[in-house]
Amino acid sequence: MTVSKNTIFEQFLAPFVNTFLIDQEAIERFHRSIDWEKQSDRLTNPTLIYPEYYSSQNFHGINGGYLNVTAAVTYDPITQYALPPNETWVRQAVIDTVRTEPSRIIDIGCGTGSMTMILKQSFPQAEVIGVDLSPYMLTCAEAKAKTAGLDIQWRHGNAEKIEFADASFDLVTAALLFHETPPEISRKILQESFRLLTTGGQIIILDGNQKTLRQTEWLTEIFEEPYLKSYALGNMDAWLGAAKFGAVETQNIWWVHQVSSAIKPLSDQEPDDQKLRQNLPFLNNNSDHSDNSFPAPAY
Ligand SMILES: C[S@@+](CC[C@H](N)C(=O)[O-])C[C@H]1O[C@@H](n2cnc3c(N)ncnc32)[C@H](O)[C@@H]1O
User: Fold this and answer.
1) Fold exhibited by the domain 87-281
2) pLDDT score recorded for residue 275
3) What is the layout of strands, in order, in the sheet containing 197-208?
4) Which residues are within 8 A (CB) of 93 and not within 5 positions of it... i.e. 6 or more apart?
5) Number of helices and strands (H, E) in the chain?
6) Range with the poorest average pLDDT among 35-44, 79-88, 279-288
């Protein structure tokens, strides 16, 4: 496994981070504690075809992106420093945004399961499912959840087309996924999330703050993130509106993150929906962004 050396992180920060901030021995111990081939093979969906945007790119300076063990074992130790001021505090913003007690949650692009586990801990009665394209990230997630005694299902799948029926979930979450997908893929994933949600169901997205990223170009150069610039130029509120979500809201979290929330609104056609709409006004699609236009950022 090779690591590319041409990003700001790899040239200037990696030596410092690796020497002083990362517990290399702990990574080694974790690496050795898992039979990666056996466990990732077990979690692999043999029918899954990796999308080109994913398998052809390096992410975070690691050649081969997420489809290898190195990406999985180094992800958590690095990510804690990528979510200032504090990873737990930033992730808690997702939980604080949940409107109602969910009974079925899907966390898409779940990676090593850090967000998925917080969801399960916060809503212990809910059935929680984590979906990711990398069997190595899922292997890591499964091991962590097992250690923590959390009952979570892990699925190897593509968030563009997930093997669950329409209206299967009342909460869809995506943490740190959309800065890693090209905008046209992000739109597809949002449409798929809409399909998976029940009427009145909520989607919550934690990711980099698009406005800040637009204003501070150097931030988009730190790590090897092939789609970060196009993510920064986009607008999550507009993407959610275009996917027909309502009650679209984005809040800044600290300075570098944002949490977006939206609701699958009632359809105008269903008579039952019309009654519900009168009683629960927040279910109405009150987004101004229901077309593909590019409105001003919400913050
Ligand atoms: C930056 S990580 C975020 C992981 C986790 N959600 C977190 O909060 O730490 C992005 C993850 O998205 C996954 N991913 C990217 N595109 C995906 C797709 N189309 N379907 C499912 N997972 C995807 C990657 O494999 C990776 O694990």
Assistant:
1) Rossmann fold (3.40.50)
2) 52
3) 153-156, 127-132, 104-108, 169-175, 197-208, 257-263, 246-253
4) 206, 251, 253, 257, 259
5) 14, 7
6) 279-288
Ligand 1 proximity of 110 Cβ (cutoff 6 Å): yes
β-bridge mates for residue 78, sequence order: none
Distance, CA 132 to ligand 1 centroid (Å)? 6
According to DSSP, the β-strands at 127-132 and 153-156 are: parallel
Q: 25 exposed, middle or buried (CB, 10 Å; 0-12, 13-18, 19+)?
A: exposed
Question: What is the pLDDT, as a whole number, of residue 238?
Answer: 97
Question: Out of 16-20, 226-230, 272-276, which region has the weakest mean confidence (pLDDT)?
Answer: 272-276
Instruction: Tell me the CA–centroid distance for residue 153 and ligand 1, in Å.
Output: 16
Q: Is the CB–ligand 1 distance for residue 111 below 6 Å?
A: yes
Helix (H) or strand (E) holding 260: strand 257-263
What residue spans define the domains of the chain?
87-281
Q: Find out whether the beta carbon of 186 lies less than 6 Å from any atom of ligand 1.
A: no
Which residue, among 150, 157, 142, has the nearest Cα to 54 in the 3D structure?
157
Alpha carbons within 13 angstroms on the beta-carbon side of residue 281 total 0
